[in-house]
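Q: Convert this sequence to structure tokens.
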Amino acid sequence: MAPANFMTGVAELMVLRLVKDREMYGYEIVAAIREETGAVVRAGEGVIYPVLHGLEKDGALAASRKTVNGRSRIYYRLTPKGLRRLDGLAQDWTALAGAVDTVLKGRRHAPAL
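A:
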């Protein structure tokens, strides 16, 4: 069932999905969200870094510091707990998007979330 404040989970869902495939650092995630959404979503550092820190604190992400080309960055990777969280959020989002689509198309009686 989608929570009443469902939009708050969008950044979390995108972050988890992006780091599912490979380790990424914060600004790389910000840029990937902008690029992969065709700049429809422009979540800045002020949104993404708190999400990253919260997911790390909850055990959904693990972080490690790496130096690449002389720059030290914190890279994030998905944990098994994070994969379960991603799966749940993705299912919720798919159901929610289907319900909204039903309303937008004018069909009645969308299935309950």
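The mean pLDDT is 87.
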